[in-house]
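A protein record pairs a chain with a discrete description of its three-dimensional fold. The following entry can be read in just this way:
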Amino acid sequence: MLGSLLNRVALVTGSGKRLGRAVAIGLAEQGADVVIHYRSSETEAREAVAEIEKLGRRSVALQADLAQVSELPQLFQKVQANFGRLDILVNSAANFLQTEFASTTEKVWDASLDTNLKAVFFCCQAAAPLLKKSNGAIINFADIGGILGWPGFIPHSISKAGIIMLTRCLAKELAPGIRVNAIAPGTITMPGDLPELEADFVKLAPLHRSGRPNDIVAAVSYLASAGFVTGQVLVVDGGRTL
């Protein structure tokens, strides 16, 4: 039987907008108090806080540039100060940088790896003392680019493949006190996305549709509560990777 999220405290990185925000609000709907992390989307983050508070849950917006490792201790100190605990860390903050092989620069490479991989490792490191106290859970966001490999997105694909191996390593390193899993979404259609992106995915996915935010919220909720699951990558892609 899955555990309840009632009164658990979750930090969702990059949750001021888009999929991170949907995950944060979805966790609040299931009874969690939620820390909204943002880098530059302060207005959207505060709107997300207000939406969560309307659900009767506690929330706060905290700013940090996750690629700057020196900022992370203060982020988690603020979580401790506001809530006294942390039960769930969802590492959803990421970028998605397109670059052709021949024109890939060191700047693009570093931007992909720093945000998508380095920041996740050091967030996990900084969060671990709090999560150990609560027998908590970490949920990392990979994506199917880390499984299939996408020409035109090589640094991105490498960063997400790194998330998969990082998840497996941390599941061993942090057991038994902290469970660590990952989600690898396929195309998730968000308001304002280009229709051609969805159409291309639909042609290749056996379920003949793209994902919706609720599909990812359900996956996060499962991994947050599944007490006998660690070191796994839950692919949520309508069968695309088949």
